[in-house]
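=== RUN LOG ===
request id: a7f3
mode: sequence -> structure
chains: 1
length: 401
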Amino acid sequence: MPTALFLSLPMHGHVNPSLPLVQELVGRGHEVVYYSDDPFAAQVGQTGARYRPYGARCLSDLGGVAARLDELPWLLTRTAASILATHLTAFREERPDYVITDSLAPWGQWAGEILRVPVVTSVSTFAFNRHVLSAGVAQGVRPKSVRRLLVKFRSMSRAFLLGRQLRRLYGARGPGLLGTVLGRSDLNIVYTSRSFQPCADSFDGRFHFAGPLGTARSESGSFPWDQVRHPTVVYVSLGTLFNAEAAFYRDCFEAFAGQACQVILSTGSEVSTSSLGDVPPNFIVQAHVPQLEILRRASAFVTHGGMNSVSESLYHGVPMVVIPHAGEQAIVGRRVEALGAGVYLAKEHASPERLREAVRVVTQDQSFRDQAAAIRRSFLETAGASGAADAILAYTGRAQA
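=== RESULT ===
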């Protein structure tokens, strides 16, 4: 029985897309040992994989990552150092035949090289190369200030120095500075379609586009469906990392109060409903909602542009207003806009008036829904988890021959 060591980045947008692939591998007789964090233990267990925790100490640097994205190379490298120091012996004792690692989990690249086994990269964002990055810069995706640019350079310098120490300690090359934040290997499973991927022609056979795999997950919790009284449903969510935005939620109140629509607003756990003031009658406000069920009924989705949220919206043919909070999300949002499946709205320009107008446009112009449906068809045409597993078996078989 082949054994796979799956080293995840324990965040919803990275774990959720990977679980159908894990379940497929388990169904084919592979033993998968899946490292993550305790909030994901039950989901991992349901796939048939064996869950293993990294531990809070190893992940301590990632706790405030949403507010420290400019320091990402340093945070990821330091997390890699901590995980390798704590778990490398346990990784070795599992005797894996191959490693699957998240593209933002550089410790997986290190572990695979140290253990001398093939590495497969799980890519829950777009695939990135110099062509995609150049296109992003051309679209205005760049540091917003000199101070932030200096923070990035300092972070890269610290990551480079720590990476050099790790190379000496483990006798391995490691993923390098660029590979730390844009991880790749000789097989990369990308959870989107080639049609949605920017600059798709610049990616060779090492990139397998499996389509979004987490779009049929089960959701728990109740929701007051009896309060949804208008056929036009506008769903608003900023995901799990960037949702501490009380001012934005109040802007949504101002934008849509009294409008001919039902607004479902998910705030996350950082902002209480009571802190927002009076909730307009046409709003349902909850910390957590069943996102997939809502998207099945939604007319438009106001989103931060996280890849997981965008993929789920497109899978259900729902056009979007994308208000990005980070560079990667801006690239996703620009792609949605370029393909005509939504409107891109910069965070600093997201006034109540512009937000209301953007939602009006995507709900009243049928072309946005038509384009979202076209991308949905490209998702359905991919080989999914089965095709991804086929690619992994072919690759690991060649690598071990």
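=== NOTES ===
The mean pLDDT is 92.
The domain at 225-380 is CATH 3.40.50.2000 (Rossmann fold).
=== END ===
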